[in-house]
Amino acid sequence: MRILKKYGCLILLFVFLREISLPFFMNFFSDNGSHDAVLLSQLGQNGMPMQIAFKRWEIIDGSLFIFSAPYFFERFKNEFKFSGWLFGSLIAIYGIGDCLMTALFNYGSDYFANWHSLLHALGSGIGSGALLAINLCLLILAWQKDQNLWAKLLGICLLGGILGGFLLETDWITNKTAISVLQCLFLDILYLPSFLIALQDSKNLFIKN
């Protein structure tokens, strides 16, 4: 556990890089590779050429997010009462919901097509909610510490994430490529604050050593 608390920033940084690069490794934006997949989750559907690779990728990433939870606990444990447990739990919940559950349960034609589509959607929703909650908590901490520039960035990421999630749930955007790009941007925007924290802590780790 000590190792995870100390070096978990490297794990978190690595898994964020994996998640950001996933669409490119899975040929998500290529018609030949994705076979008209609009959402990342559809890469794991039956019949998709990257189904097995996608599921393995997400299972690994989900596990890595869970392994990084002790680092988040240690990083924020002195901010307020139960803050360590809150941040550690949220990053683990994201790994379980948006990675493990989306890998284990196939997404169908819609959320209510069958029970595993419902569980897939539930996991994805809970995971996205956990990321939003992390950014909200970081924003509150930044306000309390008068970290104005950091607070502005967090506010932009939080609003951008909410807007992106809202647009993905509406029928306002019909272009398939636009929907695919929007989903990736939505996730990357939500990743950014935690990614920057892990990046800074990773730098400090090597400087101290």
TrEMBL record:
<keyword id="KW-1133">Transmembrane helix</keyword>
<dbReference type="Pfam" id="PF06197">
    <property type="entry name" value="DUF998"/>
</dbReference>
<keyword id="KW-0472">Membrane</keyword>
<feature type="transmembrane region" description="Helical">
    <location>
        <begin position="149"/>
        <end position="168"/>
    </location>
</feature>
<feature type="transmembrane region" description="Helical">
    <location>
        <begin position="180"/>
        <end position="199"/>
    </location>
</feature>
<feature type="transmembrane region" description="Helical">
    <location>
        <begin position="85"/>
        <end position="107"/>
    </location>
</feature>
<feature type="transmembrane region" description="Helical">
    <location>
        <begin position="7"/>
        <end position="26"/>
    </location>
</feature>
<dbReference type="InterPro" id="IPR009339">
    <property type="entry name" value="DUF998"/>
</dbReference>
<keyword id="KW-0812">Transmembrane</keyword>
<protein>
    <recommendedName>
        <fullName>DUF998 domain-containing protein</fullName>
    </recommendedName>
</protein>
<feature type="transmembrane region" description="Helical">
    <location>
        <begin position="56"/>
        <end position="73"/>
    </location>
</feature>
<feature type="transmembrane region" description="Helical">
    <location>
        <begin position="119"/>
        <end position="142"/>
    </location>
</feature>
